[in-house]
Write a structure and sequence with these properties.
Blueprint lengths: L2 E5 L3 H13 L3 E5 L2 H10 L4 E5 L7 H11 L5 E5 L7 H10 L2 E6 L4 H14 L1
Parallel strand pairs: 1-2, 1-3, 3-4, 4-5
Helix pairs in contact: 1-5, 2-3
Length: about 120
């Protein structure tokens, strides 16, 4: 069981992710935005950060930066509805520079999310 911080401004997506991850007995903390997530990161240790990138006011890059400052070893996964026109290898390279271990495309495939989360946790 891992302690996972999930950050997404869409309540439907947050609840879907919680349902998928709690089914695998993970302890899931949900945040609706970057400010709330950064506060949670400041007070609690997490085994994994799963964050959306495009959110109102503050984006997921700010959450990732805070996570890197507070817990540099924590794996980070991105949720993204990246446009299909952007080459996947280019996107992966850009995210790798941020220390992102995996990118999960939206709409979310539940079995893919579960397996990618497990892989990220095992890889540390």
């Amino acid at each position: 069981m891992a302690k996972i911080l999930v950050v997404d401004d869409d309540p439907v997506t947050r609840n879907l992710i919680r349902a998928i991850l709690t089914r695998d007995e993970h302890d899931v903390t949900l945040c609706a935005g970057a400010v709330e997530a950064i506060e949670a990161l400041s007070f609690q240790p997490f085994d994994l950060l799963l964050t959306d990138i495009i959110m109102p006011q503050h984006d997921g890059f700010e959450v990732i930066q805070a996570a890197r400052n507070l817990r540099p070893e924590m794996p980070v996964m991105i949720l993204s509805a990246i446009d299909g026109k952007v080459p996947q290898d280019l996107t992966a390279a850009a995210f790798a520079r941020l220390g992102v271990s995996r990118v999960i495309a939206k709409p979310i495939n539940p079995s893919l999310l579960a397996s990618e989360v497990l892989a990220a946790i095992v890889a540390g």
